[in-house]
Design a protein that fits this description.
Helices cover 19% and strands 47% of the residues. It has two helices and six strands.
Length: 151
Amino acid sequence: MRKLFFVLGMALLLASCSEAEVVEHVEAFTIETMSDTPDSSGLYVKVGYHRVNSVSFLKEWGDKVQGETSSIEDFYNLDGDYVSTRVTYSYGEALKRHNLLDGKNEYIELTEPTTILAPAMSSGVIETKSLSEEEKEKVKAHVLKYVDGIR
């Protein structure tokens, strides 16, 4: 659900532009995974990390804005052991006046690591990788191959 709101937020941000645009963003990164609930002190704690491949499209036409995000996330525990993989497709369409017209958030679970080109986690909170155009095309094709079965 958070991804759907992110997609719609990005789509609405794009809507503020005066000319019609299509924006595509392809990325590969690694980020900490935090607990779903706070501990006894009220703090969320690091429970591992996940590697991500993501492709986002934002489109604007007339009085409508459309956002679409496809991603693969490989989850690991604090010891670096693989836990699971989630392939997600999120879609949202809205009027520029913030009215949601349509939305969808679908996912499937896989049982083996699936991301490519995401950097190894070091001591940081997030590790990013600047992708060349060739690497972007490779990540995009890889993600869309997995997402085609759920959208």
